[in-house]
Amino acid sequence: MSQLTEYIEETKKKTKGLNEIEKIRYVYLDLGKRFQFDLKFAFGNSKTKKKIYTNSRGEENLSECLVQKTGICKSISLIFENVLEQIDVPVKSIVDPEEYTGNRHYPHMYNIYTTDDGRQYGFDLQRDIKRIKAHIRTVHFATPINTNQELISRFELEQIDKKLQYITNKVYYTDEYLELLKTHMNLYESFEEKAKFMLENVEFYCDSNMGYADRKWRLEELIGNGYKDGKLLQPKEARKIHLIDCCQEKNGKKEYQLLVAVDAKKEEELYLFSDQEKCFVPLSIEKFEKMKQEGLENLQGIPKLKKRRKQNQEKER
Question: Domain map of the chain by residue range?
C-alpha cells in the first residue's frame, strides 16, 4: 500500500461523521501541518525546477512527497484533490488562469470546489502553509471565484476550527498575539530595540516543524517591504531589514539557515534563526565571519558588512 493510499484510509476514519466543508477543512489543516515547501525547487536551477514540477504527479511521486513531507504547489494541490475525491468531496486541481501563459514555465496550481448551483471557490493550501504552521487565520481557504457569496462565514469557520481543535480555549488564533507584539514594539524608541524585540518573539506560537521557505515567506509578510506595509512594520522600517539566505553543505546535503540583517546606526546587527531555541538569536559579526570560514555561504550580500570589509581592506593596505 502506497503512502498516499495509507493517508487516504487514515483520513476516511478521521473524517467520518463530518460534513463536506468540515472534511475539506480537516484535510486542509492536516496537510498544512505536515508539509514544507521543497527547497530543492526553491533554490534549484531551471533544469532542477522543471524536473520537480514535471514529476509532481502520479501516485508514486505524490506518495514520496508525503513521506518526505515536502512539496510544491502542484504536488500539494494534487494530493489535496486525490484525498478529498476518495472521501466524496468534488475538489479539482487547476492551473492559475493568470499564470497560464507560454512564458510561465512552472505555473501556480491550486484547487477549486464547485457547489451544486455552480458557484466556485478557491483553496490554495501551498500559500496558507506558513499561516497554518504559525497557527493564524488562513486567507486562501474558500476564496470566492465567480461569486460574491461566501461559502462559509468567518464565524462558521471558527466553529469548525474549534471542532477540529485547530483552536482551543487555551490556544486561539495567533493573529491576536501579533497585535499584542506590535503594541509592545511601539514602546521602544529606537528601531534597533524594536527589531530585536520582534525577532526574538515573533516565532513564539509557531509550529516547530515550519519549513525554511515558509518561515521566510511569513517573515516577509510580517515585515513588509519598501513599498507595502507589513503586519508589524511600516515601509520605511522594512527597508532597514534584509533577509539573507544562508546555506552550508553537510554530509552531501545543503542545509539552509535564515539570517536577518538590521541596519543599525553604527553597523549591521545580525540575527540567525536557531533550530534549537526556535527563535532568532543575535549573532556577532565575528561569529558570522567564523561560520563563513567553516563553510557557511550567504547567497545575498549584506550592505553594511560589505562596506565594513572594504574599509578594513583599505586600512590594511
Answer: 3-163, 175-316
